[in-house]
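Worked problem 6 (solution included).
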Amino acid sequence: MGTCKCGFSTDEEKNCNGTHNVVKQVRESLAKEIEALSLDSGEPNAQLNALGMKMIILDIVRGKNGR
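Solution. The predicted structure is:
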């Protein structure tokens, strides 16, 4: 398959073994759980702060920040 480019290979010689497919599934599962979180705590501006944090976390989980 060749050398792993994603960095998630479990192969000792860092050859691609498809581990990135599992990582992708786990990331998407986590993203769905985060998206389902309620943002309503009843405090002023809580929803705006929570929405911003949620967006940052989703980018990280989905690997859109370069990871």
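Discussion: The chain has a mean pLDDT of 81.
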